[in-house]
Amino acid sequence: MPRTTRALRSRTALLALAVLAIGPAPSAAAAPPPAQEDSVTHRLPVVSPTPQHMARAGDDVRLARRAELVVGAAAGDTDEAARRRVTETLRAHGVRDIDVRAKASGRAPLTVLLGPAARPDIAKALGGTKVPEQAEGYALRARHRTVALGGKDATGQFYAAQTFGQIIAHGRIAGAEISDFPAMPLRGSIEGFYGPPWTEAERLDQVDFLGDTKANTYVYAPKDDPYHREKWRDPYPADKLAELGKLIDRASANHVRFTFAVSPGGSICYSDPADVKALTEKLRAMYDLGVRSFSVPLDDISYTKWNCEGDKAKFGAPGRGPAAKAQVGLLNTMQREFIAKHEGANPLQMVPTEYGDLTDTAYKQTMRAELDGAVEVMWTGTDVVPPEITNSQAEKAAELFGRKVFVWDNYPVNDFARTAGRLLLAPYDKREPGLSGHLSGIVSNPMNQEGASKLAVFTMNDFAWNDRGYERSRSGRQAALYLAGGDERVADAVQTFVDLNHAAPTFGEANWQPQSPVLGPKLEAFWQRYESDPAGAIRALRPTAREIENVPSVLRAGVSDEQFLHDAKQWLDATELWGSALGHGLAALTAAQKGDDAGAARERAAMESLAGQARAISVDPAEHHQLGQVKIADPFLDEFVKGVQDRT
């Protein structure tokens, strides 16, 4: 059965933005908001990604039914995507009459100025709010009856428009000033996993999501696309080319760079001019389609053998140094003869064969000595799936490759054996603040399940935007609110579901993120209390059992993201069964405490049946090549069942 390609119910831009205007509810899962305090009346709303600077500028600005949107007189100065987002935001908040003008009239109850930060009217309205010098930066100031949205460039305008949507709540625009820019130039996702590639609908959904979260990079590198790897010399068929063209256009509309990757290392003859020409032609066809960012990954290949005798004759016996010499020759040719000679093309990206360690070798020595300085080098950390990335590690990687590295972070990817049966939903963690000083960017390698990946990738984009201001719990709550459409109760259920699917394995035996950091200790505490106060322990755990059982129905009713619900279906089904099993297990213990052996046996049998049904749910083979049974909150739920069996 092919993977689903059904049309997804489109979210308006406003839904994704206005959700985040609502701050986190007080709960055990929510962290205190950042220092965005109101010195006048109300706390400022939480904005995601976390701005570099946000402060109170004055009283909140009231929305009205009528507003002016001032876009300036110069053609092309105002970004069209930003203009659309501001208009959609205003209409969704009840503004019915929007007068788009070149110059403010001074008579409107609300005036929104949108365009370059240097435009005189915007510069005046921004007052003392600093305009960032960095690319993609923006400044925002809401005061009296005027909101100024000024971008350093067109993308900065787009991001200012998104933030505008996040500071509106309850008929008011927060009286804020914001000076903001990304700490890392490159942020987003790389479709670089093994297994069934994403569908067209999933890719379109992903670039919309990246635009929503101020990410600017999507790398097309699906390992199982034959034209990306095995058939790299062959041109894409017309239907596939049209599909990619649609995706490129959608990415541009979201200010996301579509980066086309082609991986020739498994069969290329570096010394053969025909192969160099074939690679050049592959890139040229995508340039003609509108691509301006390119990558040549050389990962997951062997440098202990050549693909042709010509390479042995030119570079010598296979090995680290000769492999690097051959690769550098190819990459420098692509950068200097193709990228540099095509208008608007961004620097070439590459993935080295040695992408996941900090050992100096002949391979790395050749790379740093001879690879063109413009080429971006990707690095996965100290392992394929690193348990942490520190500043010292990133600094060492930059030293080894002779440039800041671009991190391909293999999270939340679930294409390797230890992730079989899992969704990886935990917020980003164990990446050290300050990495922006050593990295050119971070991209996530998501799961085969695109929609389910958003919870983790949301937090990764938050970190890449402002690593020094990143706060894991706050970001996790904002990700839950994003998915929940701003509904606090639904967001609570999202976070419970995240806790059940929190484990993040490495290639070793340990997880770099623990499973169920909320439920696990709660069940351990339950058994400890049960020994001395069984009735109290059972009473305290019952709400948790009901909460887990109800999570699927709350999410299915409250989450509008159909792709997420599709991707999470088996895990939601298992969650409902496990929640019910917990309830019957508590009922069995209650009956046993009362001496009702028959009742305890009935409830225990019901628990065992439900747990068995949950364990039997398997991954859809159309979705994933890592087959097996769905895992939820393991081993804690199995241990609970065993504990009930032992006591009844």
Automatic annotation (TrEMBL):
Domain GH84: 185-468
Residue positions of the active site: 300 (proton donor)
PROSITE patterns membership: GH84
Family annotation (SUPFAM superfamilies): (Trans)glycosidases (SSF51445), beta-N-acetylhexosaminidase-like domain (SSF55545), Hyaluronidase post-catalytic domain-like (SSF140657)
Entries under InterPro entries matching the protein: GH, Glycosyl_Hydrolase_84, Hex-like_dom2, HEX_bac_N, O-GlcNAcase_cat
Keyword tags: Glycosidase, Hydrolase, Signal
Signal peptide: 1-30
Coiled coil: none
UniProt family annotation: Belongs to the glycosyl hydrolase 84 family.
The protein, known as: Beta-N-acetylglucosaminidase domain-containing protein
Organism the protein comes from: Streptomyces longisporoflavus
